[in-house]
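Weekly modeling sync, notes
Attendees: S.R. (lead), two postdocs, one rotation student

Agenda item 3: backlog of single-chain predictions. S.R. asked that every request posted to the team notebook include the full sequence so nobody has to chase files. The rotation student volunteered to paste the first one in as an example of the format we agreed on. Action items at the bottom.

Example entry:
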Amino acid sequence: MQAKVGDRLVTESNKVDSPRREGEIVEVRGGDGGPPFLVRWDDGHEGLTFPGPDAHVVPG
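Predicted structure, as returned to the notebook:
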């Protein structure tokens, strides 16, 4: 998975009643655009994220 600053990270929920999570990638710390990503989630929380197989990047 590759991304750049300004792209959006979307993590789909693996539970029926849980919503998916979305956030803006504010920093890419891996080489060649790879993870980990510093993400500002839509709820305002920021965190370093290593996306799993349930995540995808939407170009910004």
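Discussion: group reviewed the output briefly. The mean pLDDT is 95.
Action items: rotation student to repeat for the remaining queue; S.R. to check formatting next week.
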